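User: Reviewer 2 asked us to show a designed sequence for the structure in our supplementary figure. I'm pasting the structure tokens here. Could you produce the per-position amino acids so we can include them in the response letter?
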């Protein structure tokens, strides 16, 4: 692309001199020259053609001198526009003023055209660098805008209304997800399977960022679709695994805890596909990890078998689910929040409602890692059975 140069000088001979000296570059399309005879005329041309790269301006001109023109150009705040000022030999005061006002370089009359050519080439190099940086900045802004939209879309995927089923008095539920980046691979979900049963899920996709977010959306859709028609927690995981194995790219996988709560009896049938064990918080303040079912992650090996177990919630009990972004949260000393610390904090929350449990655990994690960057997505889900 040609470098567009606007020469501003009240001496007409300069136009002939420049077009003659740079005729080869003009012919090759490397340079395009335009001419104005004072600062006012130059400004009018710049308004009509705002893509000039170099302004070659005399300082002493009628109507509007070069220093005033330079001030006007500075107001345009275009770092890719370079000004080379021309002054009489020995006019150091004006040259100093021009350089202090941000001129790229200067030359003196009579103009040494070889020296001017080198100066224009030097300006062209800087202009190319700035334009590339501006292009990359624009691309980055576009990517950031896309990520903001993706973040909004991901947040709308997750249920946000709490309590989710106010007409049902036998349980209460609350959940929260905080992505380490714009978007994340963690998710939670819950849904009515029928009049008697509530399905609930917490999951963690391998990796972070956009790839994890896409696989997260696929995983959530697959699990929910199968769960609404499959009575068995283990069969839901088995069927979901076979589908996700077909959809997995770059060996991505997802850990999942899927439970089915009978809202009338408090019995939870569950399958743990390689996920962190939930914590059962009894009304009396005792806490324990929910026994694993010994099953593997989803999306790794097709035709794997999955199993299920049962536990019974008594009125006042709380089932607390989380992802490893909680237990593996790291402080400035590179210490982990840990499963043990989570159990200890859960003991203090007996009798609290799900919202209080989630918010308090989130608070303790924040206090523990204060000052450290969040390294992983953090997701929590709490179910309180009322009976």
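Assistant: Here is a per-position design you can include in the supplement:
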């Amino acid at each position: 692309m040609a470098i567009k140069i606007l020469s501003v000088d009240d001496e007409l001979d300069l136009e002939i001199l420049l077009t003659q000296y740079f005729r080869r570059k003009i012919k090759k399309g490397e340079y395009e020259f335009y001419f104005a005879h004072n600062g006012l005329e130059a400004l009018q041309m710049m308004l009509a053609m705002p893509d000039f790269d170099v302004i070659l301006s005399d300082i002493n001109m009628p109507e509007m001198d070069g220093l005033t023109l330079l001030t006007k150009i500075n107001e345009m705040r275009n770092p890719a526009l370079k000004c080379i000022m021309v002054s009489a030999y020995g006019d150091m005061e004006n040259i100093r003023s021009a350089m202090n006002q941000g001129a790229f370089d200067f030359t003196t009359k009579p103009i040494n055209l070889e020296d001017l050519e080198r100066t224009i080439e030097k300006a062209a190099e800087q202009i190319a660098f700035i334009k590339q940086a501006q292009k990359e900045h624009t691309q980055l802004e576009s990517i950031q805008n896309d990520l903001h939209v993706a973040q909004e879309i991901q947040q709308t995927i997750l249920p946000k209304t709490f309590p989710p089923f106010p007409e049902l008095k036998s349980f209460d539920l609350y959940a929260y997800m905080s992505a380490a980046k714009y978007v994340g691979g963690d998710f939670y979900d819950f849904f009515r399977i029928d009049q008697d049963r509530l399905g609930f899920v917490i999951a963690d996709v391998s990796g972070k960022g956009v790839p994890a977010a896409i696989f997260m959306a696929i995983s959530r859709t697959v699990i929910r679709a199968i769960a609404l028609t499959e009575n068995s927690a283990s069969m839901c995981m088995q069927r979901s695994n076979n589908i996700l194995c077909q959809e997995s790219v770059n060996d991505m996988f997802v850990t999942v805890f899927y439970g089915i709560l009978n809202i009338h009896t408090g019995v939870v049938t569950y399958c743990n596909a390689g996920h962190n064990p939930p914590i059962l918080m009894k009304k009396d303040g005792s806490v324990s990890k929910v026994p694993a079912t010994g099953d593997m992650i989803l999306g790794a090996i097709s035709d794997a078998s999955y199993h299920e177990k049962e536990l019974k919630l008594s009125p006042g009990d709380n089932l607390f689910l989380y992802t490893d972004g909680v237990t593996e949260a790291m402080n400035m000393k590179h210490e982990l929040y840990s499963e043990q610390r989570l159990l200890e904090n859960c003991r203090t929350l007996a009798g609290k409602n799900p919202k209080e449990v989630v918010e308090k655990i989130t608070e303790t994690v924040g206090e523990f890692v204060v000052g450290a960057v969040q390294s992983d997505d953090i997701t929590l889900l709490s179910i309180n059975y009322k009976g």
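For the response letter, you might also mention the following. The chain has a mean pLDDT of 92. Residues 44 and 185 are 54 Å apart (CA to CA).
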